[in-house]
Structures are given as structure tokens and as C-alpha cells.
Amino acid sequence: MMPVALGPAQAATMAALDRRIREDAWSATVYQTLASRPQTELWGMEHESGELVAMMVLAFGPWDAELELIGVATEWQGRGLGGQLLTLARQRLQQSRRERLLLEVRSNNRTARMLYERHGFRVDGCRRAYYEPSVPGGRREDALLMSLTLAASYSLL
Ligand SMILES: CC(C)(COP(=O)(O)OP(=O)(O)OC[C@H]1O[C@@H](n2cnc3c(N)ncnc32)[C@H](O)[C@@H]1OP(=O)(O)O)[C@@H](O)C(=O)NCCC(=O)NCCS
């Protein structure tokens, strides 16, 4: 599967995939808004049947970019699609000459953390009790702040 750029026309499809992946999925309206922002890119992986099975949201600031979301449909996880999307994120960072790719991840999300570390992300910090509990009645969960630094593009001198 090759990554494809997604736009406002796919907002409902993205919201439907998000609902398959997590409890607090974004709505089609949120995806519509994201798709209309010039500083945001939405990328997906489509099965040959046309079904959207993975996606990511990248937001570009002046110097850095942020991975706002990456998700793979449950039955498609563990087959390299998340890794392919991260490789694309790195390429987009290089092409757009941003210095760092930033993200937040639940500290207990081992699969995602290991994937990010294998792709060169390092932990920079922790935001305590940042996320809603993942189980009813549970505790709020910490966010780890991670970043992938490509290169400093300017001299300190
Ligand atoms: C985190 C996530 C995006 C990773 O995507 P993925 O397509 O499963 O990732 P990959 O297959 O590229 O890599 C996952 C690694 O974990 C391993 N793995 C083993 N069992 C696995 C399983 N049940 N599910 C996922 N990965 C598994 C894979 O083998 C792979 O390791 P490898 O590259 O050494 O072989 C995906 O699991 C997901 O959408 N999770 C739910 C949403 C989420 O947590 N998003 C991140 C929030 S910050």
C-alpha cells in the first residue's frame, strides 16, 4: 500500500476510521476543518478495495511539525503501515525544511512508543495527567513528549 493525500471529501471516512481505533475519535467536522487548513496535511493508506485502513495528521509550524494523529485500523496493526506513515512524515519534514517532528503519546502505549523510538524519536519530557483515563474510573494518564530532530538548519554563530 502507498500513502495517499486525503482532503475534505474524505472527512467522514477519516472520522469512521478514527472511531474504529479509539474511544475519543474526532468527528467528521473536525476532519473537515483540519483538511481545510493550509498548514495541515492528512495522509492515509488505502487497501486496493478503496478502504481507508490507516491515517496520519501532520501540522506544520514555522520551524517544527507536529504529528497530531497516527492510527491504523485494529485488524491492520502490526503489518508495517504505521512505520510507512512515519517514514513519510520524516520525508515531509525534510521536504518542508522543518527541523523537528514533535508528538505526544500515552506513557502506557508501548507499541506506539517502541515504534517511535525505532524511527529515531527521543523522549524530551512528560506532561502529568494529560490524558483522560483510558478505562472508566481509571486515573488520568501521563503524556510523554517525544521529538525527532532532523538537523539544525541555521548556525549558532
Ligand atoms: C501505534 C500504531 C499507529 C502503530 O501502527 P502499526 O501499523 O501497528 O505499526 P507497525 O506495524 O509499523 O509497527 C508496530 C511494531 O510493533 C509490533 N507488533 C507486534 N504485535 C503488534 C500488534 N498486535 N499490534 C501492533 N504492532 C505489533 C510490530 O511487529 C512492529 O514491530 P517491528 O517493526 O519490529 O516488526 C497502531 O498500533 C495504532 O494505530 N494504535 C492505536 C492508535 C495509537 O495508539 N496511535 C498512536 C497514538 S500516539
Detailed description of the structure:
The chain has a single domain (3-149), classed as Gcn5-related N-acetyltransferase (GNAT) (Aminopeptidase), CATH 3.40.630.30. 27% of the residues lie in helices and 35% in strands. It is built from four helices and seven strands. A hairpin with a 3-residue loop joins strand 3 and strand 4. Helix 1 (11-21) packs across helix 2. The N and C termini lie far apart (45 Å). Residues 21, 70-72, 77-83, 105, 109, 111-112, 115 line the site of coenzyme A.
CATH class: Alpha Beta
Rg: 16 Å
- What compounds sit in this structure? coenzyme A
User: What is the tally of beta strands?
Assistant: 7
Q: What would CATH call the homologous superfamily? A: Gcn5-related N-acetyltransferase (GNAT)
How far from one another are the termini?
Answer: 45 Å
| Residue share in β-strands | 35-45%
Mean pLDDT: 94
Q: What is the helical fraction, as a range of percent? A: 25-40%
**CATH fold call:** Aminopeptidase
Oligomeric nature of the chains: single chain
